[in-house]
User: Fold Prenylcysteine lyase domain-containing protein from Cryoendolithus antarcticus.
Amino acid sequence: MRISWWTSVIVWQFADFTLGDQVVLQDDRHQAARPHNVAIIGAGAAGASSAYHLAQYAAAAGIPVNITVFERNDYVGGRTTTVTAYNSSDHPIELGGSIFIEKNRILFEAAKAFNLTTSSASLSSRSSDIPGPALGIWDGQQFVVTQNNEGGWWDTAKLLYKYGLAPIRTLRLMRATTEKFFQMYDAPIFPFSSLTQAASDVGLLAVTSATGEQFLRESNIGYLFAREIIQASTRVNYAQNLDHIHALETIVCMAVEGAMAVEDGNWQIFDRMVEESNATLLLNTPVKSLDHDASSGIYTLHTGSDSTSNFSTLILAHPFQYSSLTSLPSTLHTPSKIDYVTLHVTLFTSPHLLSSRFFGLAPDKPAPHAVLTTLPEGEHAPDRKTVGTPGFYSVSLLRQVTNPATGAQEFAYKIFAPSPSTSLFIARLLGIQLSSSGELKPEDVTWLYRKEWQSYPYEVPRRQFEQINLGEGAWYTAGIEGFVSTMETSALMGKNVGRLVVDQWIAEEKRMRGDHEARSN
Assistant:
């Protein structure tokens, strides 16, 4: 979804983007040295950010570097990607990471530096001539909240009337919590060699070790607001309910002012990062296995029939359990497997609006453009995978589109659900009849695209996070996904690893220089 706080992936960051005050410039003795050869496995947000920031930190330090990025897909961006409605480049739709905000400075400043055009993803950016409220929150039985285009979550009297001070307390809680997180982008916390230690240093382990439900209750946020508003947000953003998702990710869902997206796809940020790093990009190149010579410190990567060696630094920039690697060398720590959400995304276009009847509304009362879901009063999720009575997490009318074959105005939709959206479900959702063979009629659903993602981890409460350094010259970015899983935080970890790598090179060179001078004396 590309609307304010209920978008599919919330991304944010609050650090300074500049490099000059972070790396001490070195003298020209680096220039005579052989370049450091770096292999990055994965060209998603973390891999692209690793390449981009490592290249900048190395250049600022005067260290020559050769970067090779291995990507098994035929595109850059990982889970940040677009597809085209009607198979027309005029109608790109975000399939993965959908929005970021101005305080997401890695993404925001990169988009600005690359001259990428951004557009608003707020309620007010929707077409006002489409009948019906802009938003509704449905518990499978009734709409507990509806909102028109004009209102905002924090300035509407309707919310205050229904929920008392809970919205204000939530806003204050969000700001207090994110202020702690902001510290992770600046010295003395950044760069951090241990995510667990960094989280402890800024006071966030108490937040990640509690459920959202516990944290909100202890913060005097009323149950009604938590269930009807905040849980709708955790479900649409992370497919998880408040009594299972940890509190930091819960708060992240509420920090979304100024939502925006890059026109034609957010993937362009990461594509340009790789390009600007001057890395060698190898698409359609899965790394099947790798070897590590402990005596020389050299890594050899095997990509099917080919092998590429002479890498002294390795960055594994995607979740290990979903890589093409089945194991790591015994000299390296193997990241633990964590449970990821299997999210089914369905995109389609249709001339029909959402059915009032499906949601139990009167025929003359249009359904909301975007419908988020929560659990009904008294229903609790027995486990972290429970979708509950509503049966899906959200459905959103993204925007009006023009069918290139007919010239007719239609609507583009996105559904998030725990299982594939069947033809029958889509027909009920639109209030239409299936064909005699039980299929959607092409005049009713003019384009359809389904995708299954391992979209983000189940953000269960935790106090320990995966280590960043896996061994000699080997680094891992995906541990941050159990802390906060967003495009921006993956980019943050990529930037953090880039800085750690260059800092290590500088330290090694100083040590070697000291040893040489000692021998000379």
